[in-house]
Amino acid sequence: MIHGMLHEVFRKCGKQNCKCTEGDLHGPYPALSVNKKGKQKIVMVKKSDRPTTVRKAKRYRYYQQTLVRIRKINKEIDSLLEKMKTETVSHYP
Q1: Mean pLDDT of successive 10-residue segments in the chain (93 residues)?
Q2: What residues contact 80, with CB distance under 8 A and at least 6 apart?
Q3: pTM
Q4: Among the listed residues 8, 12, 7, the one whose alpha carbon sits nearest the alpha carbon of residue 23
Q5: Is 57 helix (H, G, I), strand (E, B) or coil?
Q6: What's the CA angle centered on 92, arms 86 and 93, to 5 degrees?
Q7: Which secondary structure element, helix H or strand E, spans residue 34, and what is its range?
């Protein structure tokens, strides 16, 4: 896994006579959106690292989605256990 969400980025090159000055940007280039010191950063991925990075980023995304599902199930379990407790526990006079 690699920490970050994969994105495709389009860029301007800065040349005055280039087509990108009229809105036809260069790209797409692979990039990772990562959280560094509490701030979102875009980190460009080297062309040679793209296959490995894409695979690892997809694995991270799957991990995050699975974690969300597990947390939802845990909430449901906690709710059911609380309901069971309130319905079955009797108080001593």
Answers
A1: 88 88 89 89 90 91 95 98 92 82
A2: none
A3: 0.68
A4: 12
A5: helix
A6: 120
A7: strand 26-36
Q: Which two tokens stand for residue 56?
A: 């690892």
Task: Give the residue among 73, 75, 31 at the shortest CA–CA distance from 49.
Answer: 31
Contact, 25 vs 8, CB < 8 A? no
Residue type, 74: N
Which is nearest to 51 in space by CA: 87, 84, 2?
Answer: 2
For 66, list phi and psi in degrees, rounded to 5: -65, -40
The Cα 20–Cα 74 span in angstroms is 50
Whether residue 57 contacts residue 7, with contact meaning beta carbons closer than 8 Å, is answered with: no
